[in-house]
Design a protein that fits this description.
Blueprint: E1 5-12, E2 16-18, H1 34-40, H2 50-53, E3 62-68, H3 69-76, E4 88-92, E5 104-107, H4 111-120, E6 125-130, H5 132-138, E7 142-150, E8 158-159, E9 169-177, E10 183-190
Parallel strand pairs: 1-6, 1-7, 3-4, 3-6, 4-5
Antiparallel strand pairs: 2-8, 7-10, 9-10
Length: 191
């Protein structure tokens, strides 16, 4: 079965993945949706908080994670250099000259070439963690979009995609609405 690139990301109702300053404290970090996320996507929670939340270290859906520099630096500012162990971790950056952790691979070049190579390998799916510039660059290779839609409007911030060369058609695969207003929605991207 071929590997897929999955953009699995939290966003607001107006499609922002963070505030202008990169903060995301307006998102729901507890509530009725959490047990489903813990069960279905345990590897997407930072490794250092999994034990406290009773989350398994088992990689269920993904074995590789891709991040832009700004996304990676959210944890790095707190001293977290290996946020998603045991996944293979790639950070796309032209400005970082060395990785602060041997488990994190820096990739300064064309992200499309790397993703195409990763997709050709055997393994689990590839998780695109963020951010919006990287998502835009990888849009031609994104197979699935999983949105964790938080019931909040920001009005401005970092968008889901920085820019897109053309409209992308999607097919809704499934969605679940939780009593707290959180929505989990899965889409196939139709290329």
């Amino acid at each position: 079965m071929p590997r897929h690139l999955v953009y699995y990301v939290a966003c607001t109702l107006d499609s922002f993945i963070a505030s202008i300053d990169g903060s995301f404290d307006c998102f729901l970090f507890q509530g009725e949706h959490c047990p489903d996320l813990f069960k279905d996507y345990p590897e997407t929670f930072p490794a250092h908080i999994r034990p406290a939340l009773g989350i398994s270290d088992q990689a269920r859906r993904f074995d590789t994670v891709l991040m832009g520099r700004n996304t990676y630096e959210v944890g790095l500012r707190e001293g977290i250099t290996n946020p998603y162990a045991p996944l293979r971790q790639y950070v796309f950056s032209r400005s970082m000259t060395s990785s602060p952790d041997p488990a994190v691979h820096l990739h300064p070049k064309d992200p499309l070439a790397l993703v195409r190579r990763l997709k050709a390998e055997d393994g689990k799916d590839i998780w695109l963690c963020g951010g919006s510039k990287l998502a835009s660059a990888l849009a031609p290779e994104i197979d699935e979009l999983i949105l964790k839609i938080n019931p909040v409007l920001l009005g401005s911030g970092i968008p889901l995609f920085d820019t897109l060369p053309a409209a992308l058609s999607t097919l809704l695969l499934e969605h679940k609405v939780y009593p707290n207003g959180f929505i989990l929605a899965r889409y196939n991207l139709l290329h």
